[in-house]
Amino acid sequence: MEFLEYALQTLDFTNLLWLTIGSLVGALLGALPGMSADTGIAIFLPLTFNLEPVTGLITLGAIYVTASYGGNITAVLINTPGTSDSLFMTLDGYPMTLRGEGLRAIGITTVSAFIGGVVGSVALLCIAPPLARIAVRFGPWELFLTTMMGLAIIIGLSKDGMLKGLLSSCFGLLCALIGLDGITGMPRFTFGIDAIYDELPLLPVVLGMFAVSQVFLLVAEKRKAIVIDQSAIRGSVFLSMKDHLSMLRNNIRASIIGTIVGIIPAAGTTVAAGISYNIAKRTDPHPETFGKGNEQGLASVSAANNAVVGGSLVPLLTLGIPGNGTSALFLGGLLIHGLVPGTQLFTKHADVAYGLFFGLILAQFFILLIGLFGAPVYAKVTRIPNNILVPVVGSLCILGAYTGRSLPFDMYLIIFFGVVGYYMTKANFPMAPFVLAFVLGSNAEIQLRRALMLMRHNPGAILLQPLPMALSAVVLFFLISPFWGDIRRLYTHYFRSE
Amino acid sequence: MTDKNVEPGFDYNIVSSIFLYIIAFVFLFLTHSLKDSGSRVFPYIVCILTIILSTALLWKTARNGRRGNGDAFDFSGTLSALSMCVILLLYIAATTLMGFYLSTPLYLALSMWVLGQRNKKIIIVVSAMTPLVIYLFFTLLLGMRVPEGVLFSYV
Question: Where are the domains of chain A?
Answer without folding.
Answer: 2-496
